[in-house]
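Model the whole thing, not chain by chain.
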Amino acid sequence: MPESIDRPLLPEERRLRLLLRILAIAFTLAIFAYLLPALVGGWRPAWLQLPFVTNSVVKIATLGLLAFVASGDVRRFRALVLILIWAHAVSELAMVACLIWADLAAPLWQAHLGMSMTATLWGAMALDGVILVLLIGAFTAADRAHYELHYLSPLEFRSLCALADVVVEGRDERITPEDIARNVDRYLGSFRARRKWLTKLALTGLELYPLLSWLAPLSYQHREERAAFVRRCLYQDVDRRLLPAWFRTLVQGMSRLANQLTYLGYYNDPRTFESVGYTPFLSRPDTPARLAQDPPPPRRPLATLSPADVRQETLDADVVIVGTGAGGSILAHELVRAGLDVLMLERGPHYDPSEFNEDEVDMLGKLYADGALQLSRDFRFQVLQGSCVGGTTVVNNAVSFRLPDRVLERWNDRDQLDARIDEREYRAAEDAVWQLIHVTEQDHRHLNPSGYPIHAAIARLGLAGSPNRSGPVAANIAGCLGCGYCNIGCAYGKKLSMLDVVLPLAQQAGRGRLRILAGCDVGRLEATGKRITAARCELSDGRTIRVKGRTFALAAGAVSSSLILLRSSIQSRRAGRELCFNIGAPVSGIFPQPIRSYAGLQISHYVDLEPSRGYVVESWYNPPVAQALTMPGWFEDHFEHMRQYDRIASLGVLVGSESNGRATTGGLTGREIQYEPTPGDLRKLLDGIVLGGRILLEAGCRPVMPHTFRLRRYSTPAELETFPASVRDHADLTIGTGHPQGGNPISARGDRGVVDPDFRVKGYANLFVADASLFPSSVGVNPQITVMSLARYGARFVAEAAGRAG
Amino acid sequence: MERILGPGNTIVHYLWVLVVYLMMLVLMRYGNQTVELSYRRTRAFLIWTLGPIVFIANWLLFRAGAMSFLPWLNNVLHALVWVGVGLTFLYAGCRTRAGWEQFALFAVFSFVVKVAEHLLLGTWEHDNFFGIPGQTTYMAGWSALDGLLPFVIPVVLRQVARIVPGIMP
């Protein structure tokens, strides 16, 4: 492991050195304490009969020597300190065992020394215990100070260093494993999240996992042995299904999390950009011209409250809206225009777009729920959601689709959920939203550069004509600069998100009637009978407040709204069930020449086949970290793929899943998402990946690579056709979603659904839902327009209820 | 002390009775994990009214000769804990089910508890149920009457809801 041994010792390290020196002297003196009574004095006859004296002398002399050598250079010989700690810990355990099970009535001690064996053991335990505590304390402090850690423990840090050393593997590595781990530590220390401790668990597990194979902990292994272990135990054993299913899930989850951290630490470092062919937007040669041609529009001001602004323990409003994303913002916009006093509660912080920057990891930590670490229970399915004022609209791709007719028909099917959404009124709401956020077809010169050959390939394959739909996407983006940072927040005011447009407009229209409190996490609701009276919230500074209102609307997203209901014991038999997603799986291809997919709109083209095959294929690319997190391949393969980052193009296959997911308040974090794709959804996904691969092959990519656990590369359509047969289940694929839906489906039926057709939670007079959790099934396309349109459609119900309550 | 604990009974016997109640609650939770938020005030009302009413009714029915004497601690636990906490939880969970289901659930759970108390404490000892002879008949008869609670409770709650806000039938 690389160590910076040339720096002078830090105060904490000097304290450890002092302790070790004291121990070395004390242990040396103890040798004499053991030996002298055997040689001189009145105890000599008794002492000579004690067989353990020899062992004790050997032990104490060894410990003294270890302490002595370790004190010479506490950095170089830190492992010796660990051995000292280990020896004392084992000693404590052994003495406890003796106290419990040994025969302590041995006459020798009582007769000659006037001490019972029990008292002697307790005394020795106390002494060893003090030494153990001092050693652990001094060692941990020295390690923390040495690595300058913000979040990880020294053990976790070293585990990550050890993994990074073998996972980022290839010629021309630009930064050291220690740099990678430091970057990760800074990232993890930069945001608050409930699930963050899982990263600690994963890294600790990774460090200790080799013990099961009777090998030294990961960071103590030689590099070659470690690389072999990681290949065998984290990759091959999982891939070949050599482990029991439950254990394989754990190992795969642990390695996925740890690998992601490693890539995140490496590819976010600007020193690596050149090696992967990436140029950040502000450093690109044509950026000044782009900015001059399409300058950022003037900012619309948005005033928000932070926890520091809240002095009282109770807040009050006509309507309390939980969540400031697509649904909540549109609802607030409509309600303030109806003259109501609205208070919006947002769990995440408020960042002005001027604070957005090009640092991917920094923005992931600031703008995403759980810093983008939200995974399903089996760690195999990533659920990305924005968590900031503006919600996911701040970090989505702004891709806009109208709700497909077939989906609305299914929702209104009287034999199914019977949502009873008035189609005419819904479409009117959709039109209004379309205009409000200025959705237009993105047919400009800053589209994703790979989109053009992809679009041409779609046409050559005969997929572009009617009844299929294909071409550049529609999006609420005006005058795109092509920076490629849709997913980390548009700093240039081009994406017309809730943060940029709707909330400022609403605040302007409301003239003081719209307040937004950021950093306010709603725990549960309180009720008197059928009326919700207050929301209990925890502020990000740790204080708890109550927010009273006459009417409440949940718009915190499919997962969070369901969990608020469950935590409040509202519709607890149904809430959180019937969760569905647009599950996405990428496929990438390598062009023979640089194509710089990153230098344009992230999602720019799509193809939707008619009759529907259950999926949409969209061109898709990311800045280096996000791309590295899903890039297929391990070790040198992954590294080589990333070196071709500027030649790669990707397509995302989006499948509207069945409603077999579930959000629960259980699990390790009280926020658990249970989901695995059904066989039918998996088939659609594989079908879509094959189609995506064919498009990339036709566009000139060689090879194409579905994002799979084991790397698979295909260079011809015939080879590609064999891909579905190679996938055993979803664990073989990299799948994730940014579009959770359902959980509180709308239904007129008494025996189904959580929400009535008037958006009111069944059984409650003044509680409404206005987000994607309403969806009776997955929409199968990017859902933001549907969320907004439903919120606008439902606003009249909320306004009526609030008006009546007033 | 006999009047409080019953002849030959100790606190340990009552602890076992509480264990039985707990087991019944665990069983009930399989059907319904929590009480719906909107129903909590109603359930609190039931806990504080139904329990004391049953406590007094048990004593009055004993005085009237329709029931055997329940030692005071048995009566307190049965009325306040079992009926007050247990049966109100059961009611909150099953009140929307079919009438026969509610009857069956209440009657069966009540019968199990009565048998348990009879075996553990020697109470619910009576040779007839309103003239119909038999020890088992006595316990089954009162359990059947308990099965009618889900039909009585909403009638009462409907009246209470008129004057107490937040009460739901």
